């Protein structure tokens, strides 16, 4: 028997369980590489969820599931040939852990990390994370987060679960699974903890923004095919005011350390524009029959124009900022969904509303073409199963359809002009 392939004590977690390195799925050297990549490049997008785990050794001692999550996400972003093997191991281990009675907060961290970047299984993973958070009772530590470090860490983890859940619920068209804790205690209380960091300000700001987004979902997106409800205009004004108030309050507060300051500010602006788009795009929907006697322009024009401005602003932020373009491959699933929602919205609007003077179809089409080019450059060396690759494929399809429609219109317009000329010539000849 080859004793070298057997798991040793250094390969076992605190519970005595082997991990994917001990099982031979990935070598220790490769695991160190993907861990370093995750820790240095990706963890900040999830508000440093690893916290004190600053080494591969640390997460291996803590949780085989956390080790697997970091390895598979790191492999996804490093073009590692071990990605598929790590992915299969993680899925198998996560399935087993769902029925375990020995789960820990680090297992919740693992599910959040994977849900943040593995788009095809993200909804299932965050659902499991919400359930484990409830079973472990990490929400019960909010009252003591000010002065007890473990309570602070558990509260922070609970908020991370809520952010992940909210992001996926909005972009996937389902209600959040986590409960509304804002009525019990304000998320801002976390900032009063002696252990709070600058990143916690960004985390709390996201909780408050997603609370607004959830209200938008509840009012307008439970069935997006429904007519707009009675009283939708004052309701939309109220929610829009809440978004603008959020922006004014948090714009100057979100200053984190030098490495993260630039992106944190830019990400906040992207999310602000997306939330405005998410709300104001209802202006393109049909009001209820009881409101049909009101002029359409008075009901929806203001909000429709705001939605267009927000969508175009998202494109322009991405196209004009090289730093954001350099992060495209690292951004979580939510940002991919946000970009896909924006592109789908613009394609639909430019197809349906051809004659509006406040919709510059030519400019939008040009920016969409440019965005495809930018995404193509970013995805040239990424894993084929990276979520952004799917966004690029869908984007190419939609932009291709727009080009076909544009060419058909131009051909039709030319034919129409030719017919008019023939008619005029016939009229003058008689």
TrEMBL record:
Any single GO CC term annotated in Swiss-Prot or TrEMBL for this entry: nucleus
Taxonomic superkingdom: Eukaryota
Coiled coil, from the record: none
UniProt-annotated location(s): Nucleus
Presence of the UniProt keyword Nucleotide-binding in the record: no
GO biological process: DNA-templated transcription
Keywords, sorted A to Z: DNA-binding, Nucleus, Transcription, Transcription regulation
UniProt entry tagged with the keyword Transcription: yes
SMART domains: Fungal_trans (SM00906)
InterPro entries for the chain: prtT, XnlR_reg_dom
CDD domains on file: fungal_TF_MHR
Descriptive protein name: Xylanolytic transcriptional activator regulatory domain-containing protein
GO MF annotation, one: zinc ion binding
Occurrences of domain Xylanolytic transcriptional activator regulatory (ranges): 122-194
